[in-house]
Design a protein that fits this description.
Blueprint (H helix, E strand, L loop, with lengths): L3 E4 L7 H9 L2 E4 L6 H11 L2 H10 L7 E6 L2 E8 L6 E7 L8 H15 L4 E4 L5 H8 L2 E2 L16
Parallel strand pairs: 5-6
Antiparallel strand pairs: 1-6, 1-7, 2-3, 3-4, 4-5
Helix pairs in contact: 2-3
């Protein structure tokens, strides 16, 4: 999987998306310490052990380097940043029944704005799956020769 790079200046405005989701009862927030094991377990069950490990790292900072989407006190999506490497976005995911509502876009933009607030001008999206989503949403570009990314020699869970 390749990495992508995006410019943090001029990110899309998402206030209207956030308001629309709030009207549906979906809120976006940073998780707090008592929610750590809930989010880690949720990520492990729905996505992967590796992503759960990255989520655990998000709680090593204050504020937490993560945002979650929740409805009725139930997690429906998440996005983390600076969990595997400085200035990296990811992992991120939204459960299938909530996809297509722009939750992923809102989580992405909130995370990228948090990286911008840390002083970065660009951000790396590591080991990208849906390249077209990142190109369309934030005009991200593939980083040449990034096929051998930070994840290249990742240990495998057995």
């Amino acid at each position: 999987m390749k990495d992508m790079l995006t410019r943090l200046k001029g990110l899309p405005q998402v206030d209207d998306i956030e308001q629309s989701l709030q009207n549906e009862g979906i809120i976006i927030k940073r998780p707090i310490a008592p929610e750590k094991s809930i989010l880690i377990d949720w990520t492990r069950k729905r996505f992967s052990k590796n992503w759960a490990d990255e989520v655990s790292v998000a709680f090593n900072t204050m504020p937490v380097n993560c945002f979650i989407a929740q409805k009725d006190q139930r997690i429906v999506g998440f996005a983390c940043y600076e969990c595997t490497s400085k200035n990296y976005f990811g992992p991120t995911g939204v459960i299938e029944e909530f996809r297509g509502r722009q939750i992923g876009k809102l989580l992405l933009i909130k995370s990228l704005n948090a990286l911008k607030e840390k002083g970065y001008n660009y951000a790396i999206i590591g080991g990208v799956g849906p390249q077209s989503f990142y190109k369309k949403t934030i005009d991200a570009e593939i980083i040449l020769n990034s096929g051998e990314s930070i994840y290249q020699n990742l240990l495998k869970h057995k």
